[in-house]
Amino acid sequence: MAIGWRLAQRGVPVTIYERGEAGRGASWAAAGMLGAGVETEPGEAALATLNRRSLALWPAFAAELEQASGLSVDLRREGTLMVALTRDDAAQLRFTYDFQRDHGIPLEWLSVRQALEREPRLNPSLAAAVYSPGDHQADNRMLVRALKRAFLAAGGTLREHSPVTAIDVAAGRVVGLRLGETRIAADTVVLAAGAWSGEIAGLPAEARAPVRPVKGQMLALKMDPAAPLLRHVVWAPRAYLVPRNDGRLIVGGTVEEKGFNADLTAGGVFAMLEGAWRALPAVEELAIEEMWVGFRPGSRDDAPLLGPSALAGLVDATGHYRNGILLTPVTADLIARYLLSGEIDAAMAPFAPSRFAPRVRA
Predict the structure, then answer these.
(1) Fewer CB within 10 Å: N-end or C-end of the chain?
(2) CA-to-CA distance for 249 and 341, rounded, in angstroms?
(3) Which CATH superfamily does the domain covering 2-72+140-209+300-354 fall into?
C-alpha cells in the first residue's frame, strides 16, 4: 500500500489485489518496532545501512501520511532499552553494544540504577542495560489503516478478497494477472505478497521469489493507560515488550520454521510470558487481551528482495522478514523511483533478486 500510495500520488494508475483484507498479514501481526540500531548485526552491513536510511525517513513519512489520511500512526520516540538479566546476558549485551557502537550506533551503557530510573518496574535484579535513543516504534495497525485511506484518497484502486492465483507471462515478460478464471492485463506487476510471495503460480523458476513463512506467536496484555508499566520498548533476553498509548503491552515473539501453521501453542505462549515476567515481574497481574500468529516473509539470507526480477515487467518488494514496518518508507520510495525512472538506487542494489540466481559454472 505504501508503494501504491507513492505511485498514485504521481498520477500512476495502480490497482492492488489483496488476498484478504488489506494490511491484515504480517503488517497487522507485527510489533511496530523501528529498531534500526538494535537490529544491527555482524555480516549485515548493507541491511543495517538500509534500515538506518529508512528510520531517518520515518518522522517525515509519518507526518505526511497522517496529513494525507487524517489518521495517526502513533509514532513514539522514547527510545529502546536492551536489558540483561544474568552475568551471561550482560557479557552478550556488552559484545553487542561494542559492535554496534563501532558501527556508529549512538548507544548509552546504563548502570542498574540508571536503568531503573528510566523504567522503575523493571526487574531490580537485572545485570545491565543499554539505551538506544534513536530506536522508536509506530503502531503498525494504525499504520495500515492510514496507508489504506491515503492510497484510496490518492486515486488508487484496492481489490480486497481477490487472491492472485497466477501471473500471466508471454514472450518472456509479464502481461497480466489471473484471479481464478479472470485475466487482468498489466504492463508491470509488483510482487509484494509477503510470506505468500513464493506461492503464486505462473512464474518461471528463475523469477520465483525464494521467500518462506517464518511463524511468530505474539500476545497483548492490558495495562492501565494512565499508569503504564513501561514507556520504552524493551528488548529482554527471551522476549520484547512494546507499550502502546492505549494501554496495550505487546509481547513477542517466537521465531519458528513451521510453514503456514497458525496454531498458538502452550510452549510458545509460555516462553513469551516467562520472558516478559523475568524482565518486568508486574506483568503477572495483567489481563491477556489478545493472542495471535503472524508469518514473517523470510528470504534465504533474511534480507529483502527489492527491484526488477529475472522476468521483464515483474518487480519484487518482498522478503522483509523482521523489518517490514521499519523498511516501509524506504521500500516505497525506492520501488516507486525505479518504476517511474528505471533508477536502481545504490542502497537498493545489494537486495536485487538476482543475488539468488543459480550460478552457472564455466
Answers:
(1) C
(2) 43
(3) FAD/NAD(P)-binding domain (3.50.50.60)
